[in-house]
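Field log, afternoon session.

UNIT: design team B
ACTIVITY: writing a sequence onto a fixed backbone
BACKBONE:
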């Protein structure tokens, strides 16, 4: 699938994250990755090993076992990362439900 803009990709991304538990696992993964990144800056560069392990590990778990789809990271790694941080920010500020409503409907699962 080709996307012309990040906004267009965002709608697809939200379709791939239709279940609240999928989004929660992503939140945990992103928070863990940020934590280990900060630990690498403050203590030892060895903590960098855990950044992708936790960030992608929690997210991919949610896609394979909860959402039952293929992570968008495989086809669109850069846009997926940007959208993951956007979703993290919306969840952190309590605006995720508002964003789902803004999209016009609850995102639905899109299977290849």
């Amino acid at each position: 699938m080709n996307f012309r803009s990040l906004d267009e990709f965002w709608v697809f991304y939200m379709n791939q994250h239709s279940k609240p538990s999928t989004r929660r696992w992503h939140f945990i993964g992103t928070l863990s990755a940020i934590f280990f990144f900060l630990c690498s800056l403050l203590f030892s560069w060895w903590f960098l090993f855990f950044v992708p392990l936790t960030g992608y590990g929690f997210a991919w778990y949610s896609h394979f076992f909860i959402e039952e789809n293929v992570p968008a990271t495989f086809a669109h790694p850069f846009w997926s990362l940007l959208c993951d941080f956007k979703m993290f920010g919306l969840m952190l500020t309590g605006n995720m439900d508002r964003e789902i409503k803004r999209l016009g409907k609850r995102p639905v699962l899109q299977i290849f």
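LOG NOTE: The longest helix spans residues 20-42.
NEXT ACTIVITY: expression trials, pending approval
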